[in-house]
Structure formats: C-alpha cells, structure tokens
Amino acid sequence: DTAVSQTPKYLVTQMGNDKSIKCEQNLGHDTMYWYKQDSKKFLKIMFSYNNKELIINETVPNRFSPKSPDKAHLNLHINSLELGDSAVYFCASSSGRAETQYFGPGTRLLVL
Amino acid sequence: GQQLNQSPQSMFIQEGEDVSMNCTSSSIFNTWLWYKQDPGEGPVLLIALYKAGELTSNGRLTAQFGITRKDSFLNISASIPSDVGIYFCAGLPNTGNQFYFGTGTSLTVIP
Predict the structure, then answer these.
(1) Contact A100 B101 (CB under 8 A)
(2) Helices then strands (H, E): number in chain B?
(3) How many angstroms separate the CA of residue B62 from the nearest CA in chain A?
(4) In the predicted structure, residue B3 carries a pLDDT above the cut 80
C-alpha cells in the first residue's frame, strides 16, 4: 500500500565507500525527485526525472548519479562517500512537473 | 533558485494554544502547498491552495493563499501534542515549472 517507498531506511557506512539508495512509487506518477535534508532540516532538491529523463540537476557533486530504469523507480548511487554526505535523503513523486509531490519515508545516511 | 522564507523558524507553545506561521517569496506564485514532517518521517501534504485569497481548512488547520500571491499562511487552532513536527511551505512560481520549498517552521507543543 505504500505510495512512495525507499530502501534502506538507515545506512551507516565508511568514508570512501560507494552506496545506493532505491526508490519506488506505485502512484503511476511520471515525475520523481531526490531531495537532501541537512541537519538544519532544509529540503534541497538534487534531481528530478520525468518519464525517465533527467529534467532537474541542481548543483550536486558528480559523485551522485541518479538512475531511472523505469517511470516507477529512481535510484541514487553515491560514489566515494564523504562525511558531508551524511543527511536524510528523500525520494518524492508527482503526476507532473508542476504537480503536488508525495514523499517517501527517507533514508538516513551516516558516513563515518 | 527561488527563496521561500518561513517565519518563525521555531515555536514552543502550550497545548491548547493557536499557532500561526507564514511563508513569503520575492515573486508571484500560482500554487502554495503546506506539508508537515513528523519526526523520523517524510513530509506529508496538509493543504493545497490554487487561487489568490483562497482559504482552505483541514480539521484544525487553515491555510490562506495571500492576496499579493507572494505569501501564504498556516494556522493551527487548539494545538495538541501530535502537532509537533516541522511545517514546510512549497510554492510554484507563475513563471516556473517546479516547486520550491521553504526553510521550515519547527513546532514544539508542551503538554
């Protein structure tokens, strides 16, 4: 029944490792997003995909690479993890680029 | 990108009190959304506003689309402990095709 799901919920890893976060939505939406929420709780958009095509790519280090195998999935791969990557990462989806977004439960990433 | 300023940044109130918060932008917006983020969860949509001057309620929550189209307000009446969380506004500029999020208002309700 979960509309937007993310795995894992918690991720603890060492600096320098490569990790992936997965996101799936069962709402039939065309657009998906990745947000980063830092310790001050600001929500900052990272990427947006519409029908599997990248449409928003904010200033994000190229260690972050999103991949959308199909409309229902948007995964985030992070290479060479750094301490500053520690944050909560949220996936969201919407029926269109200018439509209401629905968020997943978040992935809490801690880089040691 | 667009800057959305939310005020206040944080609030500590007694249970039963009413709460008011607002969100302002430097440009005109077509849509305003209000979300609530419970501790340890993702933001959940509370209210959506589509027209200047619109006033919409969801239980004890009431939100308004400012008449200038550059601001929006959220009020919570008779607060209860489960109102605790971070409230985010999000706006769609009239010249844009993506939503921008505010800086958040953290609400603490003291029983």
Answers:
(1) no
(2) 0, 11
(3) 18
(4) no
